[in-house]
Structures are given as C-alpha cells and as structure tokens.
User: Which sequence fits this backbone?
C-alpha cells in the first residue's frame, strides 16, 4: 500500500522523520555509546597498583571476575534479587494494573497518582525512612516489643529481604503503568465473550487476557528487570556494607579502589548479563505464547 | 435451545431505574427484539440475561434452569457483540473452537463442529485466517459462528449489525434470520434500528426509560400502539393535542371537532398514521374532512411527505404514494384532507 505513495512525498517524509529522531540519536551517541566504548577499551587494560592504569590488551580482568567465588556470588545474588523483584512486581502489579485499567471511577487519576507516588520520593530519602521504621530500634520493632509480641527485634534492615522489598517498592510503579496502558487497549467485550463461551475467570485470564497483555508484560518485566539488575542506592542503603550487588561493586572499583580496568570489566559483565537474560526470557515467553 | 422466562426483572443504580419490572416468556425458537431509544434499558436487560449484570430483583429461567445467580460462563448463552469481540490472537478456527475447548471437548471432536459452524455462516476455508485479515462482515459472521458452535440454549445479539454498512446490513439481517429459523434458536436481539427490528423479529418489546411500553408483533405495534410513545416510535404518526369533549368526539386545540372512537373524557392526544389520510376527491367519503393549507412538500422518490396546517394550532403530516399521475401539491395550495373515524388513535395526554 505504501509502495504506491508518490516518490517526492515519501522522500520528504523520510527526511522529516530523520530530523525528528536526530536530537535523541545524537544524545544517545555522545552520552552512551561513546563512554561505553571507552569503558570497554579500559576493561582490556591492566591495573598496576601505584601506576593506576597501564595500556594493554588482556582478558585478565574478566578472568579474575569469573574465577573468584566472591565476585561470582555477587553476580548470582544480583540476578537472584532482580528475578525475584521482577516476578514480585508482575504478580502484584498485574491485578493492580487491571483494576486501574478497568475502573470507571472518577478517582482514577488520583489512583494513578498514588501508584506513582513512590517515585516522587528519592531513593536516599526513602531508604532513610525505611531505616527509621524497620531498624532494630525502629518504630516497627519497638511497637512489637512494646506489645510483648516478640522478645528479640526482627532483623529487617541490612538483609536481602530489605533490599527485595525496597527494590519492589521502587519498580512496582513502572510495571503497573506499563501494564495498565496495554490492558486499557484490550476490548472489555473480548473478556466478556470468553466468559459467555464458558471460560471461567482463570481460563479467561490464561487464554485471553494474558496473551493479549503479553506485549505489556514483556515491556514491564524488561523495564523492572533492568532497573533491579542495576540498582544502586537501595542495596547500598538497605543492604548495608556486607550485602554486595553489581551496581555498588562497579562504583566501588572506580571510586574506592581506583581500579578502572576491573571496574570496566564488571560493568561489561553486568550489561551483558542483563541483556542476555532479558533476551532469553523474551524468547521463552514469545515461543510459548505466539 | 430452550424457552426463556424473565420475571419481574429490575435493575436500579441508586435512584436510577435502568430496568423497571420487565417480564416476558420467550417461546422455544422465538426471535425477540428489544427496541427502544438509547438509554431505554434494552442493553441492560440483555446483559442481565447474559449474566454480566446482577439484577436488583427478579428471576431469569432458561429451560428449567434458574440462572439468575449463575455467572456468565455457566449460562450457555451465545453472545454476539456490536464490536464482534473476536480474539485477535487466535485464528478463525481457534475462535470458533473456543467454546468447545472450554467444555473440554477433545480436539478431534471439535474439528467437525467448527467446520459445520463456519459452513453455516459461509466462511468455509477461512479457518486459518486471523480476525485482522477479515472484513467487518466476515468478522461479524465469525462471531456468530463462535456463538453457534457451542450450541447455546439462547442466542443473544447486542446490536450486531450496527457496525456494518447499509447494504451489507440488509444481507446479514436475512442471513441471521434464516439461520435462526433453521436452527430453531431462541434469540434475543437488541437494536435501536426500527427497520432492522421489524424485519427480523417474531415479537418485539418496545422499551423507554427502563419500562416496557408494549410487547407484540409488528402488526400489533403498528396498528394498535399501546401509548403515544409507541405510536411515535414505531412508524410515524402525526399528533393533534386536544381533549375528548364528549364520548366519540375529540376537540383539537385549534377547535376542530373530530369523530373518534374514544370513551374517556379529558385531555387527550389524537395520533394518525400519515399514509392513512386521504386527499382531494378520495377524502369526500371520510367522516372527518377538513380544509388544509400545504406548508412543505418533501419528494422522497416512492413517497411524497406533505406537511399541512389545519388551524393555527393544528398541523398534520400526510404521506402519498408517488403513483403515476399523482399531482404534487405546492406550498400554499389549499387542499381537502380526510380520514376514517377509526383511523385516529386517542391517548390520554401524558405529562
């Protein structure tokens, strides 16, 4: 159909489209691709204590990462946290997004604002709030101790659970908003048609709602997974010094150890892991439901 | 296939009566049409039968089953939507098989049922297409096939034709009607399109503001409208306001004395079908005969619509068949019009 469009018009449209994408393209090129390329080059350099960085072409930084159980554990923990957070966001986010998408309430905009509310508070401020609420001497434990329900304070701060809860709280709005917009695009009558054809709520969800919402589910999980893999403030503030994830590890190598080549290598491993896991998940999901 | 019985069905939203005391018995294989202006409660009624809206009061029985409190997936009502509501991610065959799949029918058994349903709607060979690859009319037929394949007790049609263009609509109308007769399906259709309702229905329910105004066949509704609303909604009527001055005598606002068959005294409205009025020499034999001035003439091809004024307060609409040799009156002409005593229907004036 578009082949029949007169050439000059199509040509004009193409050049206009080019103009429209140019600013964003330039920003991404300068702000992302350039630094990443330089980072990759650094990751092949050598780190000599005292001399900072020595030019070279070696894989020893990558070898060091994959042969040291400590670093592998950090990677594993990061993936585990990201997967759990993403699943938790999906399981909690879908019903919420569904209600938001289908509600006829005049308070709908207010409800959407409430979902987005966590994003109004910065990571550091939120984490500080968590500390006062859930620390060993925080309000939560003090109340339970005071009521005599527990003898020992429940350890919440500086555990993996604290980090999980923290990241889910931050990422949930992204999942909900992505899903909501996709579910709103699904004709309500299609669900009703499934019901009238004998499908109960579970069957309707499995055969109709889920497959039709799949593009949104993919987008939402990708978004929250990437955010969780690269989380920085939440693991540092809620996980404490002993709880290491990849984001803080990268920062530590650059800012504290001054080991730029190793920092670069970790960055690349993090990026690659995020990308591969995202692609793998997509392939699995698409193969099952297409 | 079963009879359907609705008893004192009611739905209120706060103070608003969406459906007010709706009762009807629909015979096995009957085609019932719910007709009315938008917001009259016809769709709410249909959705209560389908199970999507919980009635405030009343009872719905399909065959011997009381389905009032059953969820939609346990009612076995085939439903066809205005928007078709096909599953966009499934092929035509999978769409049609969905109801059978939900009944845990083995794939080998489903195939002939799907093929039969598609044959009924003349879409054999479209099995592997997707809804987006079909025209509106074809999607509409897939939706029908999908509802028929599960052999529903009752077929519910929610303005199924209003998204089709005019020519297609007339074809599909006849097709659905033929199919419904052939399969002997108890059917309820909702529409605001009067012509559609009249061509398809065995019986019609005229609704307004949540209330049933009249239930009857096409002829009953047209010849004996129960009230002024039905007289104006089914076909066209010209209305004269006035009062019954004496038994059998209507006096219009403009002072015309009209013979009619109305017993009760008091404020009343006289309704006349425009095509039951005679003009010129043909009016001579009528009991009611008046001089009128032509105000406006519309040439509609097969018909002429003529607006006339009888007095300052009384206006009338005439419809003449455009036969060969019919002389078209001009605005300003003075003509004689007349009608038989029993042509006028008198209703008590509504507030």
Assistant:
């Amino acid at each position: 159909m578009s082949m029949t469009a007169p050439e000059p018009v199509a040509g004009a449209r193409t050049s206009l489209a080019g103009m429209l994408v140019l600013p964003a393209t330039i920003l991404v090129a300068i702000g992302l691709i350039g630094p990443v390329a330089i980072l990759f080059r650094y990751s092949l350099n050598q780190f000599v204590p005292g001399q900072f960085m020595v030019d070279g072409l070696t894989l020893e930084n990558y070898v060091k990462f994959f042969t040291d159980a400590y670093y592998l554990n950090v990677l594993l923990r990061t993936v585990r946290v990201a997967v759990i957070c993403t699943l938790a966001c999906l399981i909690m986010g879908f019903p919420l997004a569904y209600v938001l998408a289908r509600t006829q309430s005049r308070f709908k905009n207010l409800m959407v604002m409430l979902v987005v509310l966590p994003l109004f508070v910065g990571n550091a401020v939120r984490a500080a709030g968590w500390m006062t609420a859930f620390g060993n001497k925080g309000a939560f434990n003090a109340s339970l101790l005071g009521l005599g329900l527990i003898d020992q304070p429940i350890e919440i701060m500086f555990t993996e659970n604290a980090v999980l809860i923290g990241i889910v709280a931050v990422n949930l709005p992204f999942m909900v908003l992505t899903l909501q917009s996709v579910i709103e695009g699904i004709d309500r009558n299609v669900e009703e048609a499934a019901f009238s054809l004998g499908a109960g709520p579970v069957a309707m969800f499995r055969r109709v709602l889920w497959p039709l919402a799949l593009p949104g589910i993919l987008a939402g999980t990708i978004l929250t997974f990437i955010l969780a893999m690269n989380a920085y403030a939440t693991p540092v503030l809620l996980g404490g010094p002993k709880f290491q994830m990849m984001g803080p590890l990268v920062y530590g190598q650059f800012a504290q150890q001054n080991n730029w080549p190793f920092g670069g290598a970790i960055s690349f491993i993090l990026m690659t892991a995020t990308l591969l896991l995202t692609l793998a998940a997509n392939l699995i999901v698409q193969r099952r439901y297409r | 296939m079963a009879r359907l019985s609705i008893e004192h069905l009611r739905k209120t939203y706060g103070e608003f009566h969406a459906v007010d005391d709706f009762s009807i018995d629909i015979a096995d294989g009957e085609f019932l049409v719910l007709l009315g202006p938008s917001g009259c409660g016809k769709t709410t009624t249909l959705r209560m039968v389908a199970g999507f809206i919980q009635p405030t009061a009343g009872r719905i029985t399909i065959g011997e089953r009381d389905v009032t409190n059953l969820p939609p997936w346990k009612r076995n009502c085939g439903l066809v939507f205005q928007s078709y509501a096909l599953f966009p991610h499934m092929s035509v065959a999978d769409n049609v098989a969905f109801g059978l799949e939900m009944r845990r029918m083995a794939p080998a058994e489903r195939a002939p049922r799907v093929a039969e349903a598609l044959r009924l709607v003349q879409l054999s060979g479209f099995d592997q297409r997707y809804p987006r690859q079909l025209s509106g009319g074809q999607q509409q037929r897939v939706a029908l096939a999908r509802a028929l394949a599960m052999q529903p007790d009752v077929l519910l049609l929610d303005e199924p034709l209003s998204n089709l263009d005019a020519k297609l609509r007339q074809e599909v109308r006849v097709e659905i009607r033929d199919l419904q007769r052939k399969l002997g399906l108890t059917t309820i259709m909702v529409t605001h399109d009067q012509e559609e309702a009249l061509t398809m229905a065995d019986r019609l329910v005229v609704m307004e503001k949540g209330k049933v105004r009249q239930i009857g066949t096409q002829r009953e509704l047209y010849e004996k409208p129960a009230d002024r609303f039905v007289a104006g909604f089914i076909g066209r009527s010209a209305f004269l306001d006035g009062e019954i001055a004496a038994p059998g005598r209507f006096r219009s606002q403009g002072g015309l004395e009209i013979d009619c068959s109305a017993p009760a005294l008091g404020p009343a409205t006289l309704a006349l079908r425009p095509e039951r009025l005679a003009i010129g020499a043909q009016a001579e034999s009528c009991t009611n005969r008046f001089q009128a001035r032509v105000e406006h003439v519309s040439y509609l091809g097969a018909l002429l619509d003529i607006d006339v004024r009888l007095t300052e307060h009384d206006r009338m609409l005439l419809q003449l068949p455009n036969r060969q040799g019919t002389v078209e009156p001009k605005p300003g002409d003075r003509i004689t019009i007349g009608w038989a005593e029993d042509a006028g229907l008198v209703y008590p004036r509504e507030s």
